[in-house]
Structures are given as structure tokens and as C-alpha cells.
Amino acid sequence: MKTKKSRTVTGAGSIGLVRFVRVSADGELSVHALDATGNYATLCGLDGDDNHPSCPQKVIGHLKRGKIDCPECRNILKKAWEYSERDLKEPNNRLSVPDKHEPKEKP
Fold first, then answer.
1. Which of 10, 46, 83, 99 qualifies as a FRET site for 62, CA 20 to 30 Å off?
2. Helices assigned H by DSSP within 23-88
């Protein structure tokens, strides 16, 4: 029986296809979900992209396929699955346009 190995993706151009990140923290390898904001390396908040000697976390590679084994990432995803698309609202970043549900000001 053949087994497929996870393929590590390198290069900034391929990050859009990636859903998982492999991180080494204190010598332990784990697979995490990617952070959606870009502020951290992982959804659970590991900042594995610091090149500082005091930072014990290092990004080992990005994966197209994988199994998330980080307990914190798993808990965040499981909680998010409780919501549906109709529970979400697009953010209103335009300050000059009133929300359509707010009462209109009379002149």
C-alpha cells in the first residue's frame, strides 16, 4: 500500500493555494490552520515567522493538504462551524454611508 507524503509548498506566489502551516515550537512539529489576518503564522496565534533567537517557534513549511493536530486551532474551527453564512454581515467600513436599517435624518 502506497502512502502519500504531505508536500511542502515554498514561494510567496503559491501561498494562496495553501490551507495549512507546519510549525516547530520547542522542537515539536505540529500542523496548524493558517491565520486569516496575516498578523500571525497560525489561527491559534503562534508568531512563527520571527527570526529572533528568543522566539521558539519557526515556520517549517506551508502545506496544500494536511491534518490539523493543534488543539487550539481545532477548537477555533469547531466553534466557527456552529455559525452559518446567514449569521454573518459584511463589515461597513464606509463612514459616510448610513446603514440601510438606521432611521434617516430629516432635514
1. 83
2. 71-80
The pTM for the full model equals 0.63
> Residue 91: how many CB atoms within 10 A of its CB?
6
- How far apart CA 26 and CA 24 sit, in angstroms, is 7
Which residues on adjacent β-strands are paired with residue 21? 32, 62
Widest CA span in the chain: 76
Q: What's the one-letter identity of residue 65?
A: R
Q: pLDDT of 23-78, one tens digit each?
A: 988 888 999 998 887 778 889 988 876 677 777 888 888 888 889 999 999 999 99
- Say how far apart CA 42 and CA 61 lie, in whole Å: 12
All residues at 6 or more sequence positions from 34 whose CB lies less than 8 Å from its CB, including other chains: 18, 19, 20, 21, 41, 42, 43, 62
